[in-house]
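Worked example

This section walks through a single chain of length 292. The input is the sequence exactly as stored; nothing has been trimmed or padded.
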Amino acid sequence: MIGALFGGTFDPPHVGHEMIVDEVLEALHVEVVFVVPAYLNPFKSEFYAPVDVRLGWLRKLFRDNDKVEIVDFEVKQKRAVASIETVKYLLKKYDLEKLYLIIGADNYAKLHMWSGYDELKNLVEFVIASRDGIITPQGLKKIQINANISSSKLRADLDISFIPKSIKNEVLAYYIRNIMEKRIENIVKILDEKKAENIQSFDMSDRDYFVESVVIATTLGERHGLALLDTLKSELKSRGENFLNIEESDDWVIIDMGDILIHLMSAEYRAKYNIEEFLSAYKSPEISIETE
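Given that input, the structure is written out below as tokens.
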């Protein structure tokens, strides 16, 4: 059996990945493409979406293609896995007579740095997935992909035209929420460093509230809330955050960021109004339609 190994973090999968699989099947005439999500890229220290989430996306994306097999070998190791390990695993398990290894054109220059490279080049035939006009050496098999996209670019832009339709909703929901969580973490960190107390955040995204998240913090005195406001303005606006409206007093500052609401309250006002209880108990309003 002739196969092709296509590995990556797939964080998230995008239409370029689909194109590579389709082109490999058509141009190389392989019987199976092994799509292998990495637990962690050997050249990186972290991932964004957890491996179980990425694995689920890939299974859904390629579930109707019987020539694609999603392999969880690297995921199960729970560590960064060198390609040589995966290659040996596939050759042994599937008794392959030939195995192509698909690599991106941007990774070719670093190929000699890969663990076990001298052995690896004797076990597989490298195939370059070329895009964006990156020049690669002559004499290598190439497949041309006309998609100017990468997972990192997709995470930054969330351009839905580059997200496969079958997983679009799941990918958007995950990364939008992930971005929100990072923003909330940043706000909480700033407030904590400036001595705000009892900082709490509330996710309201599934309750039809007028913002997606609410942050509440207790101030230490009459002027502390205003000082926190000044710090948030300085720190957050430089990171591209927008302040749509601000209501301020010595006891209560409300910052409306469009999708995030921040309450900076004195201890007395916080105890009096008990916003936490309201937010915790809040339910989406029920809409009743009367019919004759």
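What to look for: Residues 168-193 form the longest helix (26 residues).
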